[in-house]
From TrEMBL, chain A:
Biological process according to GO: transmembrane transport
Database matches in InterPro entries: MetI-like, MetI-like_sf
Keywords, in A-Z order: Cell membrane, Membrane, Transmembrane, Transmembrane helix, Transport
Subcellular location, principal: membrane
Species for this entry: Thalassobacter stenotrophicus
Domain ABC transmembrane type-1: 182-375
Pfam families cross-referenced by the UniProt entry: BPD_transp_1
Protein name: Trehalose transport system permease protein SugB
From TrEMBL, chain B:
Name this polypeptide is given: Lactose transport system permease protein LacF
Location (main, coarse): membrane
Pfam families per record: BPD_transp_1 (PF00528)
One of the record's GO cellular component terms: plasma membrane
Length: 389, 325
């Protein structure tokens, strides 16, 4: 329809490019987080995440051990005898930093002023007739005519291949207690998703298919409660929980999430149930089925899509919640959920440790993303039922 | 007992209890109280049917009443007392609050949020919905734009910390600035006034997907004939969009707009995680949390102010719902 003759191709190019630009814009921040979560702290501060797939060249300095000096006999062929140190750069790196693995030298030098003066394989002449040569795979030879007393410094540039590993994840899960937070989030989320569905389904059936006085008013109340700010409930309900002895606990947060999730649950389910075909329900009633039977045998199975929609909503909402968890769960670290853990602990104690923060954030959003991409259909359907009606 | 075990037990007791309640209460009603036999069978059936809806509704009404209706009054009455809750001070908390410059900052910032975030999200949502409508890879594009909806506000804030970071090797914005030749990197979250906009970008990033999904469905619902007629009359694509499609989906646009407005008034996570309300970025929900656990009187007063702001939308929502019934 939009393709009016002659303009179609130009217009569709513009549309394609605009959408592509928007998609990239939307995706970039998340990709930055994902990439950073696999890089270690040094790599993150040395180069930006968007250059992470490329090798970077970095300059290093190691000291050759003077203790390994060997005297060379001048003999017949060499005019001067002297002293030399030979070995491989990789061993020196291993001795200084503990990192092992082959090295690729791209340039080398012997002074801090000219750290990359020579190409690998060259013999670099130094002052007082000394020479240094380093090959591309790291073999070095330092030669001096006089005895070597101090460790000579070797400067070189090395290709650092892009490195991605799971160290950040390992660290947050093992030593930062993110594993406990993950389990706590799961513990909060599942009952807080299952219980409101059940309660809401019965209420929605009553509001959709049973005749009684005050039904209209109740529906209006539910619609009104949809927008009541959660903030109002925090202080009174926490003191109520304290009065009845629940206090700040998992039981308390399950109850709270149940209460806060109900208006949307009832609203969504009622809207869906009202649309179910009247004939089926009427004929079941004529056949002598009670309301309880109609509900369990007919309405519940038919309402599966709406139940799934709400379940996904509530799951995402509870999993991602920070406010309710901060107020209704104990403030001690063993009952932190992931959002609280990140916002109140990691951002403070690990503020500059970007790799750790990224891994923690990604751990907390991995499950919702999985749910989102596998069950997107139901989520969209629920959104539409909740808003367009 | 480990929380996980406790959780499993709660699901079991909760679900089992609910099922048992609904089943047992129905049995009691039908078999014990008003059995459908004997001389009064007819009257009993009617009576049972009068009571049954309330059996179905009882748990939901209890939970709604306790967690959403009671707090409106509970919070208001608590806000009339002092910090400890021992002394009645009338509207003292509100008076102190109005004199607090930080509260005024929070109020004006919140006003900015309410003006900008729903408008921008709806605009981008509508734009993307229209552009992807006839695109072959439109579903994939929409799926990606929609994705932030699944991410927590805390997670989103962290994601954007990597964009805003005050270090050209981490923060994308500073990397771009440095590439264009600025000398020192800047902390965008500390620029007065503009930092608010940078925080809003995060919520717009999340909410655009929501607006897009709903508006996209609404656009699909626009009758083809109206569009065809407009094209036959010589209207171009822009004209068709603004004069034919937008007016027809206006009710949906309003719903999306108000839904996001309500959300904006509740979200404290982003400000809390990004700036903690510093550098003049305070908004009402985060202002309230700064008093939570310290001064319940003040906290409830702020909550009630939020309620007052939401009230017109609530009334409008109820009237819409009643009209449809």
């Amino acid at each position: 329809m939009t393709g009016i003759a002659g303009q179609k191709s130009a217009l569709s190019w513009v549309v394609n490019i605009t959408v592509l630009a928007l998609v990239v814009l939307w995706l970039i921040p998340t990709i930055g987080l994902l990439v950073s979560s696999f890089r270690d702290r040094d790599a993150i501060s040395a180069s930006a995440w968007w250059t992470a797939p490329l090798s970077v060249e970095q300059n290093f300095r190691v000291r050759a051990p003077a203790a390994e000096t060997r005297a060379i006999d001048g003999g017949f062929e060499t005019a001067i005898g002297g002293y030399e140190i030979t070995g491989n750069i990789a061993d020196l790196i291993a001795a200084e930093t503990g990192q092992t693995g082959p090295v690729t030298i791209t340039a080398f030098g012997a002074t801090a002023r000219a750290p990359v003066a020579a190409q690998p394989g060259e013999v670099l002449p130094l002052s007082r007739d000394r020479t240094l040569s380093i090959t591309a795979d790291g073999d070095y030879r330092f030669f001096a005519p006089a005895e070597i007393t101090r460790d000579p410094s070797l400067y070189f540039a090395m290709e650092i291949p892009p490195s991605f590993d799971l160290d950040n994840y390992r660290e947050i899960l093992r030593s930062d207690g993110m594993d406990i937070a993950f389990i706590n989030t799961l513990t909060v989320t599942i009952p807080a998703t299952v219980i409101p569905i059940l309660i809401a389904a019965f209420a929605a059936y009553a509001l959709a298919w049973m005749d009684f006085r005050g039904r209209g008013v109740l529906i209006a109340v539910v619609v009104g409660l949809l927008v009541v700010p959660l903030q109002l409930a925090l202080v009174p309900m926490l003191s109520f929980h304290n009065t009845i002895g629940i206090g700040q606990s998992f039981l308390g947060i399950w109850l709270a999430h149940t209460g806060f999730g109900l208006p949307l649950a009832i609203y969504l389910l009622r809207n869906y149930m009202v649309g179910l075909p009247r004939d089926i329900i009427e004929s079941a009633r004529v056949d002598g089925a009670t309301d309880f039977q109609v509900f369990t045998k007919i309405i519940l199975p038919l309402s599966f899509p709406a139940l799934a929609s709400f379940a996904i909503f509530q799951f995402l909402w509870v999993w991602n919640d920070l406010l309710v968890a901060k107020v209704f769960l104990p403030a001690s670290s063993e009952s932190w959920v992931m959002t609280v853990k990140i916002a109140d602990d990691l951002l403070g104690s690990r503020g500059g440790d970007w790799g750790i923060l990224a891994a923690a954030a990604f751990t907390s959003i991995a499950v919702p993303l999985l749910v989102f991409f596998t069950l997107q259909r139901y989520l969209v359907r629920g959104l539409l039922a909740g808003s367009v009606k | 007992m480990s929380p996980l075990l406790q959780g499993a037990l709660t699901i079991f007791i909760g679900v089992g209890g609910c099922v048992a309640y609904f089943w047992a209460s129905n049995v009691v009603l039908d078999k014990v109280l008003f059995p459908a036999r004997g001389p009064n069978a007819g009257r009993n059936i009617n009576r049972a049917n009068l009571i049954r809806p309330w059996l179905f509704l009882l748990p939901a009404l209890l939970a709604l009443g306790l967690y959403l209706v009671y707090p409106v009054f509970g919070s208001f009455s608590r806000s009339l007392y002092n910090r400890t809750g021992a002394e009645f001070i009338g509207f003292g908390n509100y008076r102190i609050m109005l004199g607090d410059p930080e509260f005024r900052t929070a109020l004006t910032n919140n006003l900015l949020w309410v003006l900008i975030v729903p408008a921008a999200s709806t605009f981008f949502g509508l734009l993307i919905a229209q552009l992807t409508d006839r695109l072959r890879w439109g579903t994939v594009a929409k799926s990606i734009i929609f994705m932030p909806m699944a991410i927590s506000f805390v997670g989103a804030a962290l994601i954007w910390k990597f964009v805003y970071a005050n270090n050209p090797d981490i923060g994308l914005i500073n990397a771009i600035l440095v590439a264009f030749g600025t000398e020192a990197s800047i902390d965008v979250l500390q620029i007065p006034f503009w930092n608010n906009l940078f925080l809003m970008v995060i919520l717009i990033w999340i909410q655009t997907g929501f607006a897009m999904v709903i508006l996209s469905a609404a656009l699909r619902g626009v009758p083809e004939e109206t569009i065809e007629a407009a094209i036959l009359d010589g209207a171009g694509p822009a004209r068709v969009f603004f004069s034919i499609k937008v007016p027809q989906i206006m009710p949906t646009i309003v719903v999306v707009w108000t839904t996001i407005t309500i959300l904006v008034l509740k979200v404290f996570d982003i400000v809390y995680t990004m700036t903690g309300g510093n550098f003049g970025t305070q908004i009402l929900p985060s202002y309230m949390m700064s008093y939570m656990f310290r001064d319940d009187g003040r906290a409830t007063a702020v909550a009630f102010v939020i309620m007052l702001i939401v009230l017109p939308v609530m009334v409008w929502n109820i009237r819409q719902a009643r009209k449809e019934m």
